[in-house]
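I have a small job for you when you get a moment. Can you supply me with one protein entry, sequence and fold together? It will help me judge whether the discrete encoding reads sensibly. Write everything out right here, beneath this request:
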Amino acid sequence: MKQVINPPDLAVALQYDGSNAPRVTAKGKGKTAEEIIAIAEQHDIPLHTDIVLVDMLAKIPLGDEIPRELYLAVAEVIAFAYLISGKQPESR
């Protein structure tokens, strides 16, 4: 049985450069979500499951920065990604 990351197979990819707010760079359901997840896995990009957060992020247009209301939730995800990947955030 295939593991479902976020029902109903919804995925959102964010890009964070350390200086601006994270941007939505990919999103999709079904087959597109599977492709986003597969690409992330191929590139050792950490995956995080949060059904409520992914639903909110999926409503943001591609290329847009996340709204201020989601900063804390996304910051926790970024911190999680740094933790499991062994990276250190850049200090500014």
